[in-house]
Amino acid sequence: MNTITASTPIQIDKPLELEVVNMTKQFGTFTALDNVSMTLKPGTFHALLGENGAGKSTLVKCIMGFYTPTSGQVLIDKQVRTINSPRDAHQYGIGMVYQHFTSVPAMTVAENLVLSRFDSPNLINWKQEYEQLNAFMQTAPFQVPLDVPIAQLAAGQKQKLEILKQIYLKVRILILDEPTSVLTPQEADEVLGLLRQEVTAGKLSVLIISHKFREVMAFCDEITVLRKGKFAGRDLVKDLTVSDMSEMMMGEKREPKQVEKTKLKATTPVLEIQSIHADKDNGLEAVSGVNLTVHSGEIVGIAGISGNGQRELVEVLAGQRPATAGQMLVNGEVYTATRSQMYRHRIFALPEEPLRNACVAHMSVAENMALRTFDRPPQAKGLLLMFQAMRQMAQGLIARFSVKTPSTETPIGNLSGGNVQRAVLARELSAEYIQLLIAANPCFGLDFAAVEFIHTQIVEARNRGVAVLLVSEDLDELLKLADRILVISDGKFVYESATSNADFATIGRSMAGH
Length: 514
Prior knowledge:
Elements: E1 3-4, E2 18-27, E3 30-40, E4 45-49, H1 56-64, E5 71-76, E6 79-81, H2 86-91, E7 94-97, H3 109-115, H4 126-139, H5 155-168, E8 173-177, H6 185-200, E9 205-209, H7 213-219, E10 222-227, E11 230-236, H8 242-250, E12 269-279, E13 285-295, E14 299-303, H9 310-317, E15 325-330, E16 333-335, H10 339-344, E17 347-350, H11 354-357, H12 365-369, H13 383-400, H14 417-429, E18 436-440, H15 448-463, E19 467-472, H16 475-481, E20 484-489, E21 492-498, H17 504-511
Parallel strand pairs: 1-6, 4-9, 4-10, 7-8, 8-9, 14-19, 14-20, 17-18, 18-19
Antiparallel strand pairs: 2-3, 2-5, 5-6, 10-11, 12-13, 12-15, 15-16, 20-21
């Protein structure tokens, strides 16, 4: 079989077959992929499953040409193809939608679509382009207004645009990396349902990375499972249960654990938010006069689609963003989120994107675990003794919270996402006495085992009397953990209910702004 280079044209007028054969990828002495093979059949919807660090992202980055595999081949319709860049992948009809938006916020939908083309001209005939774009939109599975700047789109529309870009580029193999993480349940079903129609109509082959078993069961034909960088199995979805898929991923049969909550009377207010306002980075208002009380021994959940003010609210609470009006109280005292106040009131946080917001990537695991305590005894007693105390503390936390790291001296940026979050969780929950825990999307993108562990730790804190504010875009997570749930939309709370009485459909509509 001869290797065909990226200069060899390919006829792209039908869904294509994608095969990965015996692929290995090593980073120094670390083997991220070990002799993995996978087949995406033409005109099918295929899920790639595995825990964090199983090798899923490495595999698709090798397919897209971001990484050069150490060994192995990529075949498209039985032909070996050399893919050295995403441009090469596009030439063979492969496109990818990433976890984070790639559109330019200040530009319109039309401008982003035209500039996404690899053959975009230096001088653009906009009359001609609009004619072609309008014709494209008439046949597209989603409708997004062409003249609206990206910054004005809701998160669901932005994600639809990311998928539309690839369809506009006429890809025939579409790779999706956690595409529904910013969508309401209804939007997720709409997007995946419309893509399912494209697959069934013979227009696309789709490979999706997802941690949501419900979506896999509802929309996928087949799964391939990776475990610790190796192929762990494949099967037809119709022949599997959620428990079967979990067993393939983890090597053992696992059922999702129900959290056990102690019955507590949540009557003592710990956090009181009074008419808080806050702005986005661009000066527009993000939080519009919200009020909220979180009591001791209570988990209050805030649901909402990304971009509706919850990130800014959490940053105000954590001292990362100033409030423009209103006030906060903790234990009845005015709270301005200084480090000394957080220490005095025993306030801890699990922020979103911990590598960006809670860690220093190039510093060691031990140093990151000591960011709260390095200037207090027993660590603050001379440089040599400080590092010795930090290492001892880190060793205990690594064992207690099952953080997988080669050593306490490993840079934390080298760990998988799940283990970074475990390390932050260990730091934030290891204090002898906590009064308030603020958690923002603590399980985003994490695998089944890491999610279960973090959920258990949060509920155990609540059962000890800790007041917990849990902000999450995963509605299932909130319904499982929270005692009370609120929905934030356009910077305001638009729905509130005890979780036991919450209406799933109403919450979804409120999240979508209806």
